[in-house]
Amino acid sequence: MPVWELRTISTDEVIDAVDIYQGMQTVGFEMAKSYFVNSKQLDEKEFDTIFKITPKTPIGGYKWWKEENMRLDDF
Question: How many domains does the structure of the chain reveal?
Fold first, then answer.
């Protein structure tokens, strides 16, 4: 998964998200963690006690634009 979410351990609330290049999935977690640790300016041990990093789960294949009417109203 190319999108990683930063979540709090206590409430599981999404704080931030980062999109890692598709070809970098094998090292995506390490890159995302490095990004978030640097952005929060914490050392890694302290960061691990407050936050967790999870892959973003897709909600589904819903494509709202497929249901939109292609005929626009005349004004």
Answer: 1
| pLDDT tens digits, 15-39 | 988 888 765 556 778 888 888 999 9
Domain of residue 23 covers 3-67
pLDDT tens by residue, 44-63? 999 999 999 988 877 766 66
Q: Per the structure block, which two tokens stand in for 27?
A: 């090292």
Q: Do 50 and 42 contact (CB within 8 A), yes or no?
A: yes
Please check whether residue 74 lies inside any domain of the structure: no
| Residue 72 lies inside a defined structural domain of this protein | no
Strand 51-55 and strand 3-8: pairing? antiparallel
